[in-house]
Amino acid sequence: MTEKKGENQPVAFSKEKTNPFGRRAYRPRRRLSLFIAFLAVALALPIAYWLLRPREVPHPAKAKDRLAVQLRINEIRALETEARLQHQRLWDMVCRLAATQNVDAAGWDLYDPSEEQKNILSAAARRRKPLAREILEGMAALERLKTRIAVAERDLGEPVNVIPGDTHFRIAYEYLIRNCRLADAEARGILARIRLQDPLIPGFKVWNFRFPDGFYTFVTQGEAPLTPEEARQRSLELETEQTLRRLNSLRYLTGTEENLLQHGILAGGFLKNIRLHEVQPGDFRQSLDLRRENQIILWRRPLGVQKITAVRLYPDDFQRDRDYRVEIEKRGHGARVIILIPDRFKNREIVIAVK
Predict the structure, then answer these.
(1) Is-contact 324 338, C-beta < 8 A?
(2) Entry pTM
(3) What is the pLDDT of residues 128-162, one digit of tens each?
(4) Which one of 112, 135, 154 terminates a domain?
């Protein structure tokens, strides 16, 4: 029996055609694995950088609302305070270095030191002067603070840099009129409801914003020597002191009796009693702080008389030798008005007539 060709013959299976683990099946799987590995590495690198980067306080990329602006303003104010304290520490160290190393530090600008100043400090540091090295490190720290302030300010747009004569009202008013196209009455009405910074010191920065929920204006220190809060506190202290001085001061006007009559400040004479007639508040240009002093000194030459013979106070409700006393120098070159009961003269105005 003849065996047909191909019958009962061992079949040769090709790996490339039938084996799922053969060469042709393996190549696509290997390429896919390499692609997945590459993709995993590509994704892992930015994630690792994000997780391992230096931690900073998150900031809004752009000031889009009042809260974002307020957070950024608060950060700027905190950084400015830190920079000012760092500057003060640096200046104290520079003064100590100047005293011990014969360094002329007059006029040094630690916020923007010159190359000459840096070279002086570097030379001192190379001579193993630890204080000079500390100053250089402090300058570097101050520069980093300035950079952080500049980065924070970029999100807020362009401020108005305050110059002498500026007021917060004028800057905010011009913003509302020019940028927001508001009418005069509307702009003034908005500003009447806002607490404005007073005073403004040259170097301050004013930031204005208008969002759907309202108008907001802020002031930061900028290049000024004081913070806005310090400036406000000093202004309040000065105002308080001025008020106390006014309440405890005696304002007075001096002149000869003849001149005072001619100007209508006094009236009378020629068989009529002389009395206080008409005087304006602006006429009382001199004052005596009764918390510290109780005497008014008069001299003949400024008054234009040859000799002082008599001194009288107006109005007449002040009683001589009870409320005050007059002492005239023997030759008449001068005289003194001595206040005996200061409380009766506080926050009062008097006219002193000299003969």
Answers:
(1) yes
(2) 0.60
(3) 778 888 888 888 899 999 999 999 999 898 999 99
(4) 154
